[in-house]
Amino acid sequence: MAGVAEYIKESYIELTEKVTWPTWRELQNSAVLVLVAALIIAMVIFGMDQIIGYLLNQFYTSLT
Q1: Distance of alpha carbon 13 from its chain centroid, rounded?
Q2: Higher confidence at residue 46 or residue 64?
Q3: DSSP state string for 11-55
Q4: CB of 49 within 8 A of CB of 41?
Q5: Does pTM surpass 0.70?
Q6: For 10-47, how does the pLDDT look when each residue is reduced to its tens digit (9 = 90+)?
Q7: Coil, strand or helix: which one is 5?
Q8: Residue 63 is inside which H or E element, if any?
Q9: 3-state DSSP call for residue 3?
Q10: What are the residue boundaries of the structural domains of the chain, listed by start?
Q11: What letters, b where the CB count within 10 A reaches 16 and e where it falls short, cover 19-28?
Q12: 50 confidence band (pLDDT: 50, 70, 90)
């Protein structure tokens, strides 16, 4: 049990004294970057889905 308490104590010290936390401005910039990247990836996937759907529709209508 003493090992668990020591682990928690060392973890707390590391999080409060050794970790470099981002500033509020850096955090906002990172969030915007992630949002833009997610939107771009979503648009690429949407475009691929539309193209594949169109091609499959053309293929199936040509069978009848």
Answers
A1: 29
A2: 46
A3: HHHIIIII--PPPHHHHHHHHHHHHHHHHHHHHHHHHHHHHHHHH
A4: no
A5: no
A6: 999 999 999 999 999 999 999 999 999 999 999 999 99
A7: helix
A8: helix 24-63
A9: helix
A10: 2-63
A11: eeeeeeeeee
A12: very high
